[in-house]
Amino acid sequence: KPNDISKVRSYVKSHYAKANSKYYGIAKGKNVIIIHLESFQQFSIDQKINGKEVTPFLNSLYHGKDTISFSNFFNEVGQGKTSDAENMLETSTFGLPSGSVFTKYASNTFQAMPAIISQRLGYSTAVFHGNVASFWNRDTVYKSMGYQHFFDASFYDVSGEKSESWGLKDKLLFKDSVAYLEKLQQPFYVKYLTVTNHYPFTLDTVDQDPNFKTSDTDDPIINNYFITNHYLDQSVKEFYSYLSKAGLLKNSIIIIYGDHYGISESENKTLASVIGKNPTTWTANDDVQLQRVPFMIDIPGSKLGHIDKTYGGEIDVLPTLEHLLGISTKRYIQFGQDLFSKQHKQLVAFRDQDFTTPKYTYTAGKLWDNKTDKVIPTSSISKALAKKVSTWQKAVNKELNLSDELIYKDLLRFYKPKGFKTVNPKNYDYGVSAT
Ligand code: GP9
Ligand code: MN
User: Fold this and answer.
1) Phi, psi (5° rounding) for residue 41?
2) Ligand 2 midpoint to CA 387 (Å)
């Protein structure tokens, strides 16, 4: 019902975090290139195996002079995995408590970034992905979001050993998509969804780097994970050298993020010893801390590079990016907060209603001290801390519930942001390659 939207609208208004004038609009007019690192977790950054960096190129970006790199950024996906990450980044609304927005609510009214950036700044928009368009119902959802192009598997030669598990191998995706990228009107907003670094992380020997010797744990999934991490790193490196040669780096902003965990909790104890942690004292809080994924904003030539310790998550990316592009966000219904904003609250909501903050984590029904990695016994939780924790839990539950209601009831039908033109999915046909 229309009045349900006003409840959501007033929550989002009260939760609004204003832009930081230091960063507002600094990327306006630049191409936006989003690199979605499949199943890539933060622990691989700066990790060495047998004396060799797993991801030397991503490490160089992470510490680069032009890259703002977040060290306390968390994935917040639920069962929707990649599609939840995409939903959060394109709409700043959460995935669902179960199932996927993309499969269940593909024809909802979205007010997503592809439509916003093309309507307000005239950007062209496209997704490049080596899997079939129907996976995660992407072809339907992208039309609801207003993506102008979707270069899925049908646009590439994915035959034989060119593909691995979920589609065209990443090096080929970056290479073969150039023909389409170069036809896009600039400035463009493009997203590359990689797939090779995906469970069970197998990779043909011919594609492996003989100079990278992976771990020798008794879990082949973990050992393979570092091999496909390394391959993904080489793929991104090759893409960057293309962007540089094509003269695209200097007028682009590159957003790089990991979509969700690759190693599941049941394997974390085996992983622990590889990443320098003690498996015998591994805790549920350690499982949460491993949910960090990279979030890097590379602005070539900006010299703005630094490590940003702000605690945040995928829900926060859209407002952060909109403000960098000089797009005011007050008018939209978006749950995230600009990570550069002084009003940004460092409270990371997970889909299961657990949460983490710089000092405390709530998970497995207990409150954890992040410094000691110990449970804080109820008896030693002060009244003040107990009050804070219950305020945090209420805030997390409220935000998730309102986001769910917005999606379940398709409430954006009843809301018109200033100047926003409703997207008509029928206006898009992905079968036609960019002419
Ligand atoms: C599928 C690829 C992997 O096209 O994006 O999706 P995931 O299994 O990670 O949700
Ligand atoms: Mn994924």
Assistant:
1) -105, 160
2) 36
* Minimum CA distance residue for ligand 1 atom 6: 82
Give the pLDDT confidence score for residue 432 in this predicted structure. Answer: 61
Please tell me whether the interface predicted TM-score (ipTM) of this complex is above 0.95.
yes
Q: Are 350 and 291 in contact (CB under 8 A)?
A: yes
Q: What is the pLDDT of residues 83-128, one digit of tens each?
A: 999 999 999 999 999 999 999 999 999 999 999 999 999 999 999 9
Cβ of 82 less than 6 Å from ligand 1 = yes
Task: Report how far residue 29's alpha carbon sits from residue 45's, in angstroms, rounded to the nearest whole number.
Answer: 30
Is pLDDT above 80 for 52? yes
Q: What are phi and psi of 152, to 5 degrees?
A: -95, -170
Q: Is the pTM of this model over 0.95?
A: yes
> Whole-angstrom distance between the N-terminal and C-terminal Cα of the chain?
42
CB crowding 387-416: b at 16 or more within 10 Å, else e: eebeebbeebeebbebbbebbeeebbebbe
- Is 170 one of the annotated binding-site residues? no
The answer to whether 133 and 430 have CB atoms below 8 angstroms apart is yes
Catalytic residues: 82
Among 110, 181, 98, residue whose Cα is nearest residue 142: 110
Rounded-to-integer distance, Cα 97 and Cα 315, Å: 15
Which ligand approaches the C-alpha of residue 79 most closely? 1
Q: Which of 32, 60, 89 has its CA nearest to residue 253?
A: 32
Centre of ligand 2 from the C-alpha of residue 38, in Å: 5
Could you tell me the distance, in angstroms and rounded to a whole number, from the CA of residue 40 to the centre of ligand 2? 8
* C-alpha to C-alpha distances, 20 to 67, 251, 274, 339, 347, nearest whole angstrom: 17, 22, 39, 9, 19
For the Cβ of 75 lying below 6 angstroms from any atom of ligand 1, the answer is no
Residue 398 to residue 401: CA distance in whole angstroms:
5
Residue bearing the CA closest to ligand 1, atom 10: 82
Q: Are 263 and 225 in contact (CB under 8 A)?
A: yes
Please provide the DSSP assignment of 42-108 as one string.
GGGTT-EETTEES-HHHHHHHT-TTEEEESSEE----TTHHHHHHHHHHHS----SSS-HHHHSTTS
- Give the E-state strand segments of 360-426 in sequence order: 360-363, 366-369, 374-375
Distant-in-sequence, close-in-space partners of 26: CB < 8 Å, separation ≥ 6 = 299, 302, 304, 324
198 lines ligand 1 (CB under 6 A): yes
**Continuous segment of H or E residues that includes residue 349:** strand 348-349
Q: Is cis: bond before 56, omega within 30 of 0?
A: no
Task: Assess whether the C-beta atom of 193 lies below 6 angstroms from ligand 1.
Answer: yes
